[in-house]
Amino acid sequence: MIDKEKVEFNNENEEITEENPFEQEEVLQEEQFDAKKLEEELEKQKNQYIRLAADFDNYRKRQEQEREALLKYGAEDTIKKLLPIIDSIERAQKSFQELDDCKKLKDSFEAIQKQLSECLDKIGLTKIPTVGENFDPNLHEAVMQTPTEEHEDHSIITELQTGYKLYDRIVRPAMVNVAVKE
Predict the structure, then answer these.
(1) pTM of the predicted model, to two decimals?
(2) How remote is the C-alpha of 176 from its chain's centroid?
(3) Among 18, 124, 144, 164, which one has the highest count of C-beta atoms within 10 angstroms of its own C-beta?
């Protein structure tokens, strides 16, 4: 006599036992526990995702603010380097009112020009070499061509406007007169 389990036979005469209600309840509890663990893990992953998305959004906003500040205030260092030159020009302008000697005026102008050139060199702005150099379309803009036998073909005879580079980038190409063979 089987009291808690019911035994049945299928058509192949194998014994099949039906689980007792206590075992079914344990399995159900285990499945509920697994489902609860999965739900907790899902909730944990969702929270991590939300925090990560918020961190990324904050990072993006911070980068945008830094970029705007760089564009807005990027020239500050350059301007600080130019301010002494502006001061020199203002002092020279005041002294020119009382000046009768043209030589002193010329010397003052040359001193200011030298100070400006040195400042621009420190910033990274350099003049593009021209006269006597071979024409380079990346650096020079030929606005005139002069047939001549005195200079090499495609060499620069005169500079019509100074060209400048900021480090390795062309700010303005030099306008030049280029020699061509007759």
Answers:
(1) 0.55
(2) 33
(3) 164
Domain-embedded: residue 143: yes
Domain count, the chain: 2
CB 180 within 8 A of CB 157: no
Residue with tokens 């005169």: 158
Per-residue DSSP letter, 134: B
- For residue 23, the enclosing domain spans 17-73
**Residue 32 tokens, joined:** 């509920």
40 vs 21: CA distance, rounded Å: 28
Measured in degrees and rounded to the nearest 5, phi and psi for residue 55 equal: -60, -45
Asked whether residue 46 is domain-assigned, the answer is yes
Examine residue 101 and state whether it is found in any structural domain, yes or no.
no
Per-residue pLDDT reduced to its tens digit, 64-119: 999 988 887 777 788 778 888 888 887 777 777 776 777 877 888 888 888 888 88
